[in-house]
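Hi,

I'm pasting everything inline rather than attaching a file, because the server keeps stripping attachments. The sequence lines come first, and each chain or strand is labelled.
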Amino acid sequence: MRPMSSTDKALVLELRKVCKSFARPRATPLPVLEGIDLGIAEEEILGLLGRSGCGKSTLLRIAAGLIKPTAGQVLYRGTPLAGPAAGIAVVFQTFALYPWLTVERNVELGLDALGLRAEEAQRSARAAIDLIGLDGFQSAYPRELSGGMRQRVGFARALVSDPTLLLMDEPFSALDVLTAETLRTDFLDLWLEHRLPTKAVLMVTHNIEEAVLMCDRVLVLGSSPGHVAAEIDVPLPHPRNRLDGAFRNVVDEIYSILTARLAASIGAQGGIHGGRVQPLPAVSVSRIGGFLEALAARTSSGACDLADIAGALSLAVDELFPIAAAVHLLNFAELTEASIKLTAAGRVFAQSGIDARKRLFSEHLLRFVPLAAHIRQVLEEREDHRAPRARFELELEDHLHPDQSEHTLLAIIGWGRYAELFTYDDDERAFALK
Amino acid sequence: MNYGLLKAKGWEFGRPHSGWHDLVAVAIVLTTVGLLSFGARGMVAPLAAHPTPVSLSPAALPLDCLRTILRMLAALFASFLFTFTYATLAAKSRRAEMLLIPLLDVLQSVPVLGYLSFTVLYFVALFPGNVLGPELAAIFAIFTSQAWNMAFSFYQSLRMVPNDLDEVSRSFRSSAWQRFWQLEVPFAMPGLIWNTMMSMSGGWFFVVASEAIEVGDFRVSLPGVGSYVARAIEQRDLAAIGWAIVAMTVTIALYDQLLFRPMVAWADRFRFEQSAAETAPRSWLLELFRASRGLAPVGERIQMRLRGIARLRLLPPGMARRLTPWSPPRRAADMAWMGVILAAIALGGWELQRAARAALAWSDLAAVAANGALTLLRVVVLVLLASVIWVPLGVAIGLRPKLTAIVQPIAQFLAAFPANLLFPLAVFLIVRYRLEPRIWLSPLMILGTQWYILFNVIAGASAYPSDLREAAASARVRPWRWWVNVMLPGIFPFYVTGAITASGGAWNASIVSEAVSWGPTRLSASGLGAYIEQMTQAGDYPHIALGIGMMSLLVVAMNRLLWRPLYALAERRTRLD
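And the predicted assembly:
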């Protein structure tokens, strides 16, 4: 699949066969992105959607010139990108404000590279501050501001240099729901009224509704290694209404693409090494229990749309998918298309008391999570019934990203402790039988 | 560095101004500038014209204090210069780092006064017949007591610059110069100022010790509080020592109020936590300057200039665009570089052992080892003793906020006060009552540094989460369990920090505290410090080097084998995530 811009307008940024892998100390480089082809056209907001760990932030940093791809080409207005360039600005998830500079100085920072005279810089900064609605806060320090105001500074700093391309890395995800909505709307207004100098926007997000609300086109990224899994046009007119049928349809479509990929990836990764190196989502047992109870309570059949349950439990996709993956792995529920269905065991679990839950969990853990059985077996075979964490860590790291292996160990330790299959001593970093 | 030092925060408009603000502020500025330039002239006078006998009249003390202060300032300036260059180089170049950081580790473990014996002749030869030589030697001694610490702190900050801020700076294509002043220095500032303050406390100790220098036949005494005290000891003048203590107290208080308080209050903006502070540190001086109508515009102008300099690119823009290259580490080049370093070390070692063969015997090594063991025993016993006394007291104080507010500044002041000014009083008593010097001289080692344990424990206890205390109280935990399971683990990291400083300081102090005199009476407690002091007086360089080498070795061993593991344990145990 080679997603191209849906319009025939000029491309602002183009990625051709971009790959990125990170070096590992004792192993072959780990691929994070593979064969990414994408183009961002003028007058377009392009969304990058995917689960955490699919490399979408890495992709944005490659587009920003902050990271160099291992292979492939990045073209900005037709010329290869050699590093951070004039005309490309970034808005960060964490705001990334300098706490020791006032709002005005933070914004002026966006102009430093241009070597402007002090008065000119000040004039531009004031204009950007006005535009983004920060008037009156010029002399405040970031710590005096609320989250929403801080991100406005982030926007003003990015826009002050009149960038052609604006890159946004989950710009609203660190804000509460109401603040995020206000800021999204304000930004969309400026964009739609052509009051921004910016020609094109690339936005990374894990919020499906946000993507459908703002973007003209959404690329869904698949993981391990990251690749473009699907491209969805969002031809809805602005202003868009979340309750609108057409809007819901696009949201559901994206949900089902993501769910299908999730279910497929769980199945696929189970095959290697008898499933011993399968990555596990670091989800606590209490979350699993709470989720199963919620599923059991919502429907008599135990089947439910993922979009619905996400809304009902106010879980973001990034929170929902790991839980869904965990219950699917443990065979307490089954993922299909855009819905999730309790299994018989899942229903029993939801309705049991503490001890019965532990027994059931322990049984499922041994049967359906090969890593748990593997650890248990190693411990039983050893004379002192102890094994260092490193023994399993090394096995995992041969196949997984260090973060993934860390998460996997975190998950298996938590689950194993709950199921009383084994104990773990963090001081000695070792597993042991009880 | 100090763009923004005098920045009016924007609230000065509409604030009532009274003339006295301006008057006081201008008076302070003029007095400071006048005094400093007056004192500085004395530092370059020819050596012969310099009156050798130091007057013991209290009237001479203010001038002596001024000279001592100037030395401290000069050393502080040199330390900042060193920090900004050395640490930056180490943080930016991986190859430089491989050499500079271990070197810094070694430099840090050498006792401060050890440098003095070696450098003084070099500096004197640099400016023959001028006081500038010994002045520089004294300044260098103070420099060695703070520069390593500061450089380490700055280096660590540079390595920990948050990823997102780094990306902002790169995505806006800031030049290295812009990045340094706008991101790296501000980010490192709070840690750097804290470290500067801490090492400054030690600095007073060494400035006092380095003003009256005696290496072999070479003797010089620079006008200052230290030589005043040395003279008072020679003449057995207890009253003069009392005056010196008063003068030092005033000096340290002034330094704190006029330099560090404003610096800390100003640096508060660089705190990285984005939440508002509960209590921001304040300084009356800073507020005075900010409120002064006369000085604010001057400050504003200076600030504009400095900010302009910080914003300069100082680079062709193309230079800043380089990406952190993605390539596997260049093994071969690293190995070659490592080889060069090791070869240099081997060569140096070979030369050293040849020189040592000629001057030293194996029996010297045994003597040094025995002396080292004695001093080690002293350090361990004293740190334990100080802990037993100060930990319970510190906890008791720290849990009472009102008491903490009173005691904490006193403890910090006592930590800064050069304990060697108090030595004569103790020595006087030991001589008077014919006490055993081997035992009674020992406590002097920790006299000045025990306060680090106290104020760190106070800080730990007052930061102890109140919900954890309430939980223990509602469960009616028994006193023993309360100490062992509730309180001590909570303050443990703070205690370790304090104990590390205290034991390091004790090693350093041993050089001046194990061998003391009162008029013609000389007391020696034996031990490594006394050994080094004795060899320094004799001007016996190979033996000085041997003694210093042994002390460095013991300090490093203690750090590696005891303090680091304890610190790591403390860190791991008190984390909740």
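Confidence is low (pLDDT under 50) at residues 1-16, 317-326 of chain B.

If the labels don't parse on your end, tell me and I'll reformat.
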